[in-house]
Amino acid sequence: GCCPLSPTGAQTTQLLVQPPWRPAVLWDRVTLTCQGSGTARATSWYKDGKCWWQKGPERFTVTKSGTYMCDRRGSGHSSHIHVLNARLVLQLPVRALLEGDTVTLRCRG
């Protein structure tokens, strides 16, 4: 099984999504990358809150909808990302937004 999740306090692990839009949708061929200062060969992936892939790769292309998160021993666990299998979706860029920012939304189907 997977190792227990690293403590949140040490979190420097990031979960990157390509293409950089949220929510992510399966038909976009979504690639997730786990980045952090921890050991690359100790990347564990979680899907829907359960250990899914122990000692997995840093990067993979998603083939099933769900909520994903990664953990790298030494740098903690990432935030999570939802990957949907939706026919129609309103997306916004994956970046921090502040009040007053101009934002481009995408309606796709």
What does this structure look like?
By secondary structure, the chain is mainly β. It has strands at residues 14-18, 21-22, 24-25, 31-35, 43-47, 50-56, 59-61, 66-72, 76-77, 81-84, 89-93, 106-108. Strands 3, 5, 6, 8, 9 and 10 form a six-stranded mixed β-sheet that branches. Strands 1-4-7 form a three-stranded antiparallel β-sheet, with no helix packed on it. It has a three-stranded antiparallel β-sheet with strand order 2-11-12, with no helix packed on it.
String of helices and strands: EEEEEEEEEEEE
Given this structure, which CATH class is correct?
Answer: Mainly Beta
CATH-defined superfamily = Immunoglobulins
Shape designation = globular
CATH architecture: Sandwich
Largest sheet: number of strands, sense, barrel closure? 6 strands, mixed
- Enumerate the spans where pLDDT stays under 50 for 5 or more consecutive residues: none
The third-level CATH topology is Immunoglobulin-like
What is the mean pLDDT? 85
**What portion of residues belong to β-strands?**
over 45%
Give the distance, in angstroms, between the N- and C-terminal Cα atoms.
Answer: 38 Å
Helix content: under 10%
Q: Quickly count the helices.
A: 0
Which structural class matches the secondary elements?
mainly beta
Q: How many independent structural domains?
A: 1
Radius of gyration: 15 Å
Protein name: FCRL5 protein
Keywords: Disulfide bond, Signal
GO molecular function: transmembrane signaling receptor activity
Domain Ig-like: 7-70
